[in-house]
Amino acid sequence: MQRVATLLSKAIVTGQLAPGARLSESVVARELGVSRAPVREAARLLENSGLVTYHANRGFFVRETSAEALNDLYELRMVIEIAAAQRVLRHGLTDTIDRLAAQIDVLHEVAAAGADMLTQVEADMEFHRLLCSGSGNPKFLHVFEQIAAETEFSIMVIGRLYDDPHKIAETHEPIVNALRHGDEVATREAIRYHIGVAQELVTRQFRDVEAGTAER
Amino acid sequence: MQRVATLLSKAIVTGQLAPGARLSESVVARELGVSRAPVREAARLLENSGLVTYHANRGFFVRETSAEALNDLYELRMVIEIAAAQRVLRHGLTDTIDRLAAQIDVLHEVAAAGADMLTQVEADMEFHRLLCSGSGNPKFLHVFEQIAAETEFSIMVIGRLYDDPHKIAETHEPIVNALRHGDEVATREAIRYHIGVAQELVTRQFRDVEAGTAER
DNA sequence: GTTTTGGCGATTGTCGACAATTCCCTTGAC
DNA sequence: GTCAAGGGAATTGTCGACAATCGCCAAAAC
User: Fold this and answer.
1) C-alpha A107: how far from its chain's center?
2) Is there a domain that residue B36 lies in?
3) What distance in Å separates residue A199's CA from the closest CA in chain B?
4) Does any strand C atom come closer than 7 Å to the Cβ of B41?
5) A204 pLDDT band (50/70/90 cuts)?
6) High-pLDDT (> 90) share of chain B, %
7) Quick one: which of A70, A89, B107, B140 is 20 to 30 A from A205 by CA?
8) Where does residue B75 rank: exposed (0-12), middle (13-18), buried (19+ CB within 10 A)?
9) In this structure, are B56 and B71 located in the same domain?
């Protein structure tokens, strides 16, 4: 079942399954050589992470996204991640900051290694996941996981817009720097800027896609 | 299936099913006169709303809560509801404010009618749901729904501590007043205070429960 | 030409049975 | 008396089949 969920998840994030496409239980089950039960379970899991939507008696569909939905997503990310960072500072969770710094090194490494986009995106995701999980409030991580899949998808879109992969790593540095200085305001602004830039990029890109003037 | 989910949900919120209790699929299925499939589906739904937890190959358990977890919950509520209110002001969503004011009237009405605790708690929940749904960002509402069940449970705990039910309605008024004045800072502080007081109450109550010096 | 209604095909919803796994209790060794 | 290994009961995981429901298309009525 977990295997089915992972496979479907990858297929959706990489775009193999087009947004809006119907997820026929029997078709998926046949293709993966299992029965419909584990497919349903897996689909329910993906529903939680926002990858698919469910309509009663009609089945599962790959969630369609829009510029507006992505804009809303980034608004939520800003709120959650700023709150998480604030918590890190207020509770003096310095080892969280260390882990974030280490993850930036990882980002540089995968960039230097010329890794494929998915690997880079996952390293990027991990940075933000570490921020939420290291906040000390598991509810923040829970919210992050809820929107993780859609976020991953959106970062995938943005990643293709960067010419130099090292730049992706660099955009995270001001956040860690501000955290190291223990400066709440600077941290908030760093995150607001980091996510704001991404929000701008992904929203514009999607508006272009919707207008038909750009490729996904 | 929806029927099963609703029944289980009520049983948990009202305390018929004790925290930590195992949710045996076959037992629940037999009691409700259905097969295990819809029970599993319903349990998955309840998992999303945080009412039950799932352990692989071990099944579903009624989620146990703690003073710490409730404290974390209220921290998240503060973050989300403040963000939602901020959005209401920045986008000039005055009809949301009208609906919130109307909901306070509802709160007074159920108080005057001497309604039972569950009805009052649901009216209270509706106020906060309206704030999130009326924010214009559906993601905020999504987060609210994720934590709705646990929140409802916690408000149930607090509600019993109030002697006069009208006081519950009154604690919401400063929020609407600040919103009407279009004052972002005052709104933020009103919500922080409103949720902060509840956080204090519920956390203390649960610490007492954990210490064995109070009843749930 | 438009709208409503009927039926057909396909898909989901539910079921009972079997396989796989886990947990607990017994048994045995030390 | 304590601990480890084994076996059995109980529970979850998966399966294939059937029932219920939905959407589509054609046919008929207006």
Assistant:
1) 15
2) yes
3) 15
4) yes
5) very high
6) 74
7) B140
8) buried
9) no
Chain-chain contact of B72 with A138 (C-beta, under 8 angstroms): yes
Query: CB distance A143–B138 less than 8 Å?
Result: no
Q: Are residues A56 and A83 in the same domain?
A: no
Partners of B147 on chain A (C-beta within 8 Å) are 139
- pLDDT, tens digit, for every residue of A113-169? 988 888 999 999 999 999 999 999 999 999 999 899 889 989 888 888 888 889 999
Nearest to B152 by CA among B192, B120, B111: B120
- What span, in angstroms and rounded, lies between the C-alpha atoms of B211 and B123? 31
Q: Is the CB of A52 under 7 A from strand C?
A: no
Establish if A216 belongs to a structural domain: no
Chain D bases closer than 7 angstroms to a protein Cβ = 11-17, 21-23
| Token pair belonging to B18 | 């004790």
In a domain, B176, yes or no: yes
pLDDT digits (tens, 9 = 90+) for A190-200: 999 999 999 99
Specify the nucleotide whose C1' lies closest to residue A55 (CA). Answer: C12
Domain of residue A54: give its range. Answer: 2-62
Pairwise CB contact (< 8 Å): B72 & A48: no
Question: Same domain for A51 and A79?
Answer: no
Residues from chain B that touch A40, judged by Cβ atoms under 8 A, are 41
Residue B143 is nearest to which of A40, A87, A143, comparing CB atoms?
Answer: A143
Let me know: does A12 contact A60? Beta carbons within 8 Å.
no
Structural contact between residues A131 and A190, judged by C-beta atoms closer than 8 angstroms: no
Q: What is the CATH number of the domain that holds A18?
A: 1.10.10.10
